[in-house]
Amino acid sequence: MAEINLDKIYSSFLLALEESDDEDSLSRIHKEFLGKDSVISKQRKNISKLSDLDKKKFGNKIKDITQKISLEIQNKKINLQKVAYKNREDKENSDISIDWYENTGSKEHIISSVMDEVVQIFSSIGYTVAHGPEAETSWHNFDALNTPVWHPARYESDTLYIDKKLQNLLRTQTSTVQVRHMKDNEPPIYIVSPGRVYRSDQLDSTHSPVFHQIEGLAVDDAISFTDLKGTLEFFVKEFFGNNVKTKFIPHFFPFTEPSAEVLVSWKDSNWLEILGCGMVDPNVFENVGFKKGTQGFAFGVGVERLAMLRHNIDHIKNFYDNDLRFLRQF
Amino acid sequence: MIILKSWLDDWIDLSNIEDDTISEALESLGFEIESTNKITPNYKNIVVGKVVEIYPHNNADKLRVTQVDVGSNTYEIVCGAWNFDIGAVVPVALPKSYINDDFLIEKREIRGVVSNGMICSAKELGLWDEHEGILILDDSIAPGTNFSSTYISNDTSWEIGITPNRGDCMSHLGVARELSNYFDLKIINNEYKVKSSIENILRTNSGKIVECNSYASVEIENFKIKDSPFYIRYRLSQVGTRVINNVVDLTNYILYDIGQPLHAFDRDKIYGTVSVRKGKANEKILTLDNQSRSINSDDLIITDNDKPIALAGVMGGLETEVTESTKNLLIESAYFDKVSIMNTSRKLNLISDASIRFERGIDFNIQEKALKRFLEIFSSNQDIKFSRPLIDDKKNIKNKSVSFSDKEIYKILGTKIDNRFVSKTLENLDIEHSIVEDKITFISPSWRYDLERPIDVIEEIAKHYGFNNFDSTLPIGNNRNKLGDYWNSKSFLSTQLRANDYQEIQSLSFVDNESNKRFNPEKKYVEVFNPIDTNNKYLRSNLFSSLLNIYKSNLEKNNISAKYFEINTVFDKASHPEYKEIPNQIYSLGVLTPSNVTNIDLRGDDLKYDIYYLKNLISTLIGEFDVKPIEKPGFHNRISYLILKNNKQIGYFGQLSYELMDILNIDDSIYLIELYIEKLDNDAKETSNFIPLAQYPFIKFDLSFTVPIDFVAGDLVSLVKSNLNKNENKIEIFDDYVTEKSRNLGIRISTRNYDRTYSEEETRDILDMLVKKIQDKFNVELNKS
Asked: Mapping DSSP to helix (H, G, I), strand (E, B) and coil, where does residue A321 land?
């Protein structure tokens, strides 16, 4: 019988494959070279007529070429699909420089987020949150905290009162919460009290009649001045980062002794006061009925001040105008 | 207070210490440094000259021409001042010298006469604010001397904050005392040797009241009112005090020097005995500022036989004021009670350097010493006569000795401090003390009011040890990661609302009456007794007014309509449920949802919200709840509801009334929620029970009924649910079509059996059963589609 040139068939297959550029032409090629009327199929039918030796030899040749063609078609098909996906995606372009979405969702007010951050820092070292009234008695705000009757903070020029007899007022510090907490609880006490406080100040760049404070109190066996130092240094580092520098300078508050102010220098800026603190004055413990010899420390930090410092906010009024252009920045 | 380095040098030798080191010391001792000022001359090449000749200027009546000897030469200089004569020693700015930092003085022709420079006033040399005439210097200074070498022209001043417990530091002596321990330098003991030469004419005493512990005085004759010595004027002006004349300046000088306020009276206007008493009703005094002041029985006054002559410690009387014509003086040096002076000075709003020092407490043992220092300085450059200082001291103030164990120091401070350090510190601070074994005993000095208890001295030791020299330790509390209900509720609500694209705001707590009345006319409001802004003198009784204001202002300013919430306290005058003595105050959540919200996708249309959205939102905040219609002021007559949780009212929600929309000029409907956070029951935290997921296919019916206008759709849903309660169900209203006369309600029911697939027959049976139940119960008609 006539020798069939399988190589020639394969060459003409490759030629056809190369010209093919869609799935239809691929199936035509498949049919032409591997279909039942194809030259190869016809040859396969003739195998039975061959000698055993030739049968095997020729059979293997047919099998090889069939596999090769089939694989080539399969590969070509995959390639064509890839090209098709790519072409489809190439048509879908976006100009990512456009900001169609004008903000990234709604936020906590910066005052709340700073308070939350401070609360979380103290929570990590074992403090819980205490809450108390904003309209308070003068006793809780001043007397219990060892503020003498003649102290200037009590003047109407400093404190907002809500009765003529000056017995009730809007708390000027959240230490009032500490007083209530100590009246209801025994040591050990580790609390922070975040919240609103009030002063008789006109709204200007650094003052507001309403602002926020977080005061902390730790009362436990042999709590000492070094504990106060370590605690506040920890807080300052957590809040401003490890590169912040801290120093303690003596100060005076009626409710603590010794009293200190904490100054920080952040990003090599000037020293700025951020905290008042001290060892709780024995008179305060006496006023809330704690036993003699009780020791603890207290501190207070202004929330607006922390926010202004860390975010370079120039004017306290921004916090209370609630302009969305401001609110959405933080 | 401003302190001057050269003045401190009178009390402690700081000459070898750098300014920066002094600044560090001041800060570490608790004096907050408000500013540091290097003082240098603002002039160059000014020399001292002696006026040797004066003659008129031919072309100008107001000018004179002088010949001034400046040592090397004599120059002709034109001068407009008339306060000097031949022989006066004056500062001269020759040509090529500078004043006012960089103003060049040149030879200049003034109305036809060439002036070789100018004779300078104190103001022109940046010394003090006095421009009536030129500066006259001490006769003893040789002509030709460089002016800047005649006084300490390179100096440093610090403006420092002094805490209210340290009145004793409100003088150069006081600050020097603190520094003396820091630098371990001794305080210079300034002794006064003064000898009286006249008899006292007046009698003085401290009165029959406890508020004046001691009253000292001295009489002075044969003196002249003139300018103070140069150094006094220089020092006073550097610490920020106006220079007036030698008497007033020196009383001020003593105050800044050692902290004792003095007052000078014109002795010849005083009759009889000078004493101290409390005021009487209807009594008046004309004070130095020419104001008639009413006195009452709380005020301390100084009187003579006839009349009040001064408000003690606060301000002198005009009648006995020292003037140009004063011939004889009475100088007062007294100790007045802190609180008494404070009350008078606050009441009359007269706050002076003297009153502040009395308020904070002055040294009760310095009155006589202050008079002697006054006399010594006053007599140093003129030949005056003065009496023996009289002092009437009740000796009521005594400081007790206090003891404590040195173990207390370690217990409070947590760092071991050696007793030798304690002893050295107390010694340098002039605090009388002894340390025997572990027992420390001390007596507070007469100038200290802050050393009554052991803790006070422990603070003193800590301060002088240096706060920054202490160790740091970090105690861990007993509440790790337990934030408590209050904070958890706030955080939860805030997180949920933000997830639903609500922006948090923080607004001021003060509002006007109207803002409260609109929503809470039934309440009484808490009013600030001394408001900052009389228009907004009430504490807010609701959060709505603030939310509406912020909504409106952002709409106007930024053209953005957004959803907001605020978590803060609302107040009313009812009594606090727990603490009866204070007003009611409820920690609340306020939520504002506009019906049209600006889409954050700039290509998108406004997002629409309505009351149904609010209802769903509330369930994300508090879980399942019941609603009950109410009529709520400020709200839509029909669309306002109570929020009930386990039959407890925990807030309400609804739509802003059309009336308020008109009044507030709001175009789009607004929905509001108020929730009382403290009423949320945190103990009864809901746990959701798992509902198993049915595995068989659902059957589904859409039914439409014609119902009365006031039909309650929820009842229909409940009925269907109760009849399918063994199945897994999804039952929802999908259509509510309302016209004037009729209402069609569409309900979609999909239900699955947990055990099997429903056959067609079973499906039909269920449908028939439901329709029948509905028609029977509500008497409504099924619409055939």
From this structure: helix
- Looking at the 3D structure of chain A, how many domains does it have? 2
pLDDT at B749 over 50: yes
A85 to chain B nearest CA, in Å?
28
Q: What ipTM score was computed for the predicted complex, to two decimals?
A: 0.86
Question: What pLDDT was estimated at residue A13?
Answer: 87
- Residue numbers in A near B163 (CB within 8 A): 251-252
Domain B44-149 CATH (choose: 1.20.200.10, 2.40.50.140, 1.10.1760.20, 3.30.200.20)? 2.40.50.140
User: CB distance from B547 to chain A under 8 Å?
Assistant: no
CA distance A172 to A168: 12
Question: Does residue A62 share a domain with residue A18?
Answer: yes
- Where does the pLDDT of residue B381 fall: very low under 50, low under 70, confident under 90, or very high at 90 and above? confident
Tell me what pLDDT residue B686 has: 62
Q: Are B583 and B576 in contact (CB under 8 A)?
A: yes
Q: Which pLDDT score is estimated for A1?
A: 44
Residue pairs between chains A and B whose CB atoms are closer than 8 Å: 257
Tell the CATH topology of B401-469: Phenylalanyl-tRNA Synthetase; Chain B, domain 1 (3.30.56)
Looking at the predicted structure, is the pLDDT value of residue B719 above 80? yes
Q: What is the pLDDT of residues B582-629, one digit of tens each?
A: 999 999 999 999 999 999 888 989 999 999 999 999 999 998 899 999
CB pair distance less than 8 Å for B530 and A130: no
pLDDT above 90 coverage of chain B, percent: 76
Q: How far is B21 from chain A (nearest CA, A)?
A: 15
| Candidates B472, B495, B551, partner chain A, best to mutate (most A CBs within 10 A) | B472
Phi, psi dihedral angles at B466 (to 5 degrees): 95, 110
Check pLDDT > 90 for residue B521: yes
pLDDT value at position A172?
Answer: 95
- Are A196 and B509 inside 8 Å of each other by CB? yes
Nearest of B207, B396, B388, B217 to residue B302 by alpha carbon: B207
Minimum-distance CB partner of A137 among B505, B527, B582: B582
> Which of A111, A125, A279 has the CB atom closest to B506's CB atom?
A111
Q: Express each pLDDT in B31-76 by its tens digit.
A: 999 999 999 999 999 999 999 999 998 888 889 999 999 988 999 9
Angle formed at CA B627 by CA B624 and CA B630, multiple of 5 degrees:
160
> Does B596 touch chain A if contact means CB atoms closer than 8 Å?
no
- Measure in Å the smallest separation between the Cα of B215 and chain A Cα atoms: 24
Backbone φ and ψ for B589, nearest 5 degrees, come out as: -110, 130
The more confidently predicted of residues A63 and B191 is A63
**In contact, B186 and B374? CB cutoff 8 Å:** no
User: Which residue in B160, B169, B211 sits closest to B360, CA to CA?
Assistant: B169
Confidence of residue A51 (pLDDT cuts 50, 70, 90): confident
Residue A4: closest CA among A56, A53, A62, A60: A62
CA dist., res. B692 & res. A37, Å (int): 60
Using the beta-carbon criterion (under 8 Å), do A107 and B603 form an inter-chain contact? no
Q: How many residues does this entry show for chain B?
A: 785
CA B647 from chain centre, in angstroms, equals 47
Which of residues A33 and A186 earns the better pLDDT score? A186
The crossing angle, in degrees rounded to 10, of helices B611-622 and B485-499 is 140
Strand ordering across the sheet containing B2-4? B2-4, B155-161, B32-39
Based on the domain organization, do A313 and A186 belong to the same domain? yes
Closest CA in chain B for residue A250: B30
CA distance to partner chain A, nearest, from residue B363 (Å): 19
Residue B467, chain A, CB below 8 Å: the answer is yes
A68 backbone dihedrals φ, ψ, rounded to 5°: -60, -45
- The position carrying tokens 């209900």 is B485
CB–CB of B479 and A126 under 8 A?
yes
